[in-house]
Amino acid sequence: MSIREIARRAGVSPSTVSRIVNSKNVSAASPQTQERIWAAVRELGYVPNQHARQLKRPELDQKPQNQNLDCVYARTIGPYLDPFFTVLMRAAEITAFDAGYNLRYHYSVADIQDGKAPFTDTNSDSAVVLGRIEPRSLSLLKKWYKNIVNIGQNSAPDGIFDQVICSGYQAVRTCVEYLRSLGHKKICYMGETDNEQRFQSYLDAMADLELGDLTPYVARCLFNPTDGYEATNRLLDSGVEFTAILCANDMNAVGAMKSLREHRLKVPQDVSIIGINDMETVCYLDPMLTTIHVPLEEMGHLGVKLLIDRIEGGHTSSIKVDVPFTLIQRESCGPAKKRY
Questions:
Q1: Which of 46, 64, 83 is where one domain is finished?
Q2: What is the CATH number of the domain that holds 265?
Q3: Which of 57, 177, 206, 332 is the most buried (most CB within 10 A)?
Q4: Range in 128-132, 207-211, 258-262 with the lowest mean pLDDT
Q5: 172: Cβ contacts below 8 Å, ≥ 6 apart
C-alpha cells in the first residue's frame, strides 16, 4: 500500500496526501478533501513506513507497525453524524496514524446490541470509545478489549478505564449561571436526558429557582438540528413560559433558532439561546451562537496518546484527564424579557 494508491482513491495528488498524512499540513487541502484522504486511508488500511519517516524526521522514535485500534461511537449513529464525533474521530485518527497505528474499524453501540463482536478480523485488543457509554455496552466492550480509552463529556467511575473528559455537568452549570446573571429564571433544557450528566446538572442548577415541576421546561430530543427544531415547536405549542433555552448540544441550537424564527420570535430579544461544543458552523448563524467551547481536537489527541501509552507499557493504572472548557459569549444571549 502506497501514498499513490491513497491519492488515486481520493482523487488528489500524491504530494497532497503526503502533506496531509505525514506533515499534518491542514492548509494543504479543504476539509472535504481531507475527509476523502482519511477515508481512503481507512478503507485501504494504509500505515506509514516508520523507517522511511525516521529518515525524514529523526526525532520520531521507532513505533510498532500495522497495529489496529478500533473506534466505537458510544451512541447509536443514524443518518446524521454529530460533528462532535467527526472532530473527535479525525483528531484521534491523525494522532494514531502519526504513532504508527491505524484507527481502522468504526462502529456504533447499535452494532453490538446482540452481544456479538461486529468484526471477527479486527486483530485489535484496544479501542477508542467516543461519547457517553451505557453500562451494558461497557460490559461488552470490556470483554472484547484489553485497553480502552473513553473520550467525551460524561465521566465514568474512576478505575474502569482511561478517560479524557470535558465535564458536561460543569458546562451546564456554567450555562445556567450565565443565563441567571442575565436575569433568566424560566430556562428550558433541550437535549438527551437518559444517563446524561448534562441533564442532571440542569436539574441540580435549577433546583433553587422554585419553578416547581421542571418537566414542562424539558424538551427531550436527540442531538441533531431536526430534533432541536421539532422540540422547540413542541415547547412553543405547549404554552409554557420561558425566556431562554439551554441546548446541551450546538446542533439542537441550530434547529431551535430556526423554529423561533418561524414563530416570529427574535434571538436574543425574545428568547436567549446557549449551546455546548462550539462547533465551527455556529459562528455562521445569525445571530452567532453563545456556547461552551469544548476543545475536541485536543481531547482526541490526548485520548489516543493515553491509549498508546497504555498499550506500550507506559502506565497500568486507570488515568482520568479533565480538560477545561470556555464560555464563548457571542450574540444569542441577552437580558431576560417577559414574553407574555
A1: 46
A2: 3.40.50.2300
A3: 332
A4: 207-211
A5: 198, 201, 202, 205, 246, 248, 276
